[in-house]
Amino acid sequence: IGERIQLNLADNSLLTYDLYQPLDHKYEDDITLAIVPGICNTSESVYIRTFVHYAQCHGYRCAVLNHIGALPTIPVTTSRIFTYGHTNDFHDMLHHLCERHPETKVVSIGYSMGGNIVAKYLGEKDKEKVPNLIGGISICQGYDGIEGTKWLLNWQNFRRLYLYAMTEAMKTIILRHHHILLSEEAKNTYNLNEREIISAATLPELDDAYTRKIYGFNSVEELYDWSSCINYLQGITLPVIFINSKDDPLIPDPLLEPIRQFACNQNKVAYIEMAHGGHLGFYEGGLLHPNPVSWLDRSLVSIIGALVCAHMETKAPE
User: Fold this and answer.
1) Ranges for the AB hydrolase-1 domain (predicted)?
2) In what order do the strands lie in the sheet with 240-245?
3) Which of these is catalytic: 248, 294, 297, 311?
4) For 279, what's the count of Cα atoms within 13 Å in the CB-facing half-sphere?
5) More exposed terminus of the chain, fewer Cβ within 10 Å: N or C?
6) Are 147 and 230 contacting, i.e. CB atoms less than 8 angstroms apart?
């Protein structure tokens, strides 16, 4: 059972993250995993809960960011929710986490949209990172929002259906918090057209009608370009592992070429590409009854151990 922590941010937004303590205390190192879920996901999502419990059993503390607006039981207090590329919420969680546990070392882990947020954050040069942060892992993300959207708009591998589902999930969040996000004050302040928001059939349409206006971007293209981690990778200074699968229905092969090229020329970056795994799948076992703990869960714990060992070696006295 985790502890739900609430933070009142500088812009009056209410941010929550769930903190889970290690279940196995035989490990000497104090390591915390700072986890950013995928779009519309939270600490209550099944794949997050499965990994958190597995990591706890291996001696890790876990802190899971709950995207603003995604938890139905937590109110939205300002006229914004989470986005694909805004990293401030993750930044604030990390600083609060390290104030509570100043001696811990932190490995950041992001799934899908969360993978973009983690990678972008690690590459941003305008934010003062906590010194506790020792590395990151980014899983099943597409790196480039502009190019990725082009692929999502076609029907190959049923991408358009996935896009529809994500759009409806975002609209559900907006409508759930309608009294704040679409209040008369918000509509007047940001020039929002409620009918355009409700009728949006794709994420680009929704972002054009809502997200870009809330955050002051002139166009969706400008928002996506600013949000995409591909434009921040050169700023990464910590060890980072990127993981993708070749059969991911949301992320076709052309979107993976930039990260392949980038990883080839970096000493602190590794890229793992699996033949199978889908989008955050990586299940093992029988077809009807796969193992609850996936290949990804087990591999992440191994990779985290390697990142910790590498960090200890660099800090060890000669």
Assistant:
1) 34-285
2) 3-8, 14-20, 61-66, 31-36, 105-111, 133-139, 240-245, 269-274
3) 248
4) 16
5) C
6) no
Query: In the chain, how many domains are there?
Result: 2
Contacts of residue 122, defined as CB under 8 A and 6 or more positions apart, other chains included, come to 108, 129, 133, 136, 232, 235, 236, 237, 238, 240
128 shares a domain with 12: yes
Shared domain for 8 and 110, answered yes or no, is yes
How many angstroms separate the CA atoms of 112 and 116, rounded?
7
The arithmetic mean of pLDDT across residues 218-230, rounded, is 97
Are 43 and 111 part of one and the same domain? yes
Q: Per this entry, what is the length of the chain?
A: 318
Most confident of 24-38, 157-171, 184-198: 184-198
Which of 112, 227, 228, 245 is flagged as catalytic? 112
* 120 and 245 share one domain: yes
Tell me how far apart the alpha carbons of residues 309 and 295 are, in angstroms, rounded to a whole number: 21
CA angle 202/177/168 to nearest 5° reads 20
pLDDT digits (tens, 9 = 90+) for 11-66: 999 999 999 999 977 777 899 999 999 999 999 999 999 999 999 999 999 999 99
Do 58 and 167 lie in one domain? The reply is no
Q: Is 112 one of the annotated active-site residues of the chain?
A: yes
In the set 13, 279, 294, 311, the catalytic residue is 279
Q: Is 270 helix (H, G, I), strand (E, B) or coil?
A: strand
